[in-house]
């Protein structure tokens, strides 16, 4: 199973889900991905397509999934979110 994650991509996708996603009970949802943090904000959680990613302080992470297909769908969704939504204050021109 793959074990290389682009932390910039993960954090960018999290920020865009938080900004553009639907908020429900402290969590945000966008394009099949759920994003939230722990109580102190140091741990980021991204879930979708059968994958759970826990991104911790100092960019360590825990990734859970059953098969490569789930992982590939999850990463593709995060890339689409990262590329498809604007970052506030950095609008394309």
UniProtKB/TrEMBL annotation:
InterPro entries: DUF3081 (IPR021432). This is DUF3081 domain-containing protein. It comes from Idiomarina rhizosphaerae.
């Amino acid at each position: 199973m793959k074990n290389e994650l682009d932390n910039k991509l993960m954090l960018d996708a999290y920020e865009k889900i938080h900004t553009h996603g639907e908020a429900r009970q402290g969590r945000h949802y966008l394009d099949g991905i759920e994003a939230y943090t722990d109580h102190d904000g140091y741990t980021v959680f991204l879930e979708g397509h059968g994958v759970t990613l826990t991104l911790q302080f100092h960019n360590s992470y825990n990734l859970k999934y059953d098969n490569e297909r789930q992982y590939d769908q999850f990463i593709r969704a995060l890339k689409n979110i990262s590329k498809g939504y604007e970052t506030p204050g950095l609008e394309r021109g």
